[in-house]
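User: Design a sequence. Structure:
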């Protein structure tokens, strides 16, 4: 049942450009790293807090895209979310680096 869903950054960027996204982007890196640069609109939930905060911070009926320091980090976060009952979880392939490569919007200092 641990089918790993991987989202392509180009597809995600297209969805955002069409506006009104019915999804949430979660950055599971630590807060310091998040503050220094993240995908525009991504919410910060460090991986250590993910299990405890997911149910109150995220909507189960929305699609969730997650990224972290590297692919394994994102995969672990997706596994935590699925274990918490979130069914529509995808990992952003290449994370922030891939996002920046295609000119995706970012925020941070």
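Assistant: Done.
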């Amino acid at each position: 049942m641990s089918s790993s869903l991987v989202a392509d950054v180009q597809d995600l960027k297209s969805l955002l450009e069409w506006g009104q996204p019915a999804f949430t982007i979660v950055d599971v890196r630590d807060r310091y790293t998040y503050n220094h640069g993240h995908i525009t609109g991504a919410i910060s939930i460090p991986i250590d807090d993910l299990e405890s905060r997911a149910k109150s911070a995220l909507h189960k009926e929305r699609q969730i895209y997650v990224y972290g320091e590297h692919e394994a980090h994102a995969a672990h976060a997706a596994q935590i979310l699925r274990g918490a009952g979130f069914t529509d979880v995808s990992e952003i392939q290449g994370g922030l680096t891939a996002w920046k490569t295609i000119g995706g919007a970012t925020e941070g200092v």
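The beta strands are 6-7, 23-27, 38-39, 43-44, 63-67, 89-92, 106-107. The chain has a mean pLDDT of 91.
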